[in-house]
Design brief:
The protein is mainly alpha-helical and 137 residues long. The longest helix is centred in the C-terminal third of the chain and has 32 residues.
């Protein structure tokens, strides 16, 4: 079995690709901060519950079962399953029609960087656990 075949590694890889694409979109927004009639863009969050359902056909993913009627039950409905580009005009649109707010874009960029660092740290820890399991840690 390859590491890319594991659901957790494939989800981390997809998340890292999404974060890289989102960083590109944020950079485009900042670059067009003075462009007339430019509407700020962002990427829709990927639906990781759908990725788990896709991978649930393999034996390596377990699904939760409600064993008691008093337990909470997952509804399985997350966000949208696409990472589509969304354009939304902001309430702070300039007189030229530009909706880029630099402060908002910088906050998004910082959050994006923290998420990327979190995923890379999780990736390193997962590889470390595999090495320990194989006796090479």
């Amino acid at each position: 079995m390859l590491l890319g075949d594991s659901p957790i590694f494939s989800m981390m890889k997809e998340r890292m690709h999404w974060l890289a694409d989102r960083q590109r979109v944020i950079a485009e927004n900042v670059a067009n901060a003075d462009t007339p009639n430019y509407i700020a863009k962002d990427l829709a969050e990927p639906d990781f519950s759908a990725m788990l359902r896709r991978g649930s056909s393999s034996a390596s993913v377990l699904s939760a079962v409600q064993t008691n009627p008093l337990h909470l039950r997952g509804n399985g409905s997350g966000g949208s399953s696409s990472a589509a580009l969304t354009r939304r005009p902001d309430f702070e649109t300039s007189p030229t029609g530009n909706s880029v707010v630099l402060e908002e874009q910088m906050i998004k960029a910082a959050g994006n960087q923290m998420d990327y660092q979190t995923v890379t740290g999780l990736y390193k820890k997962s590889l470390g656990m595999l090495r320990i399991a194989l006796g090479k840690g």
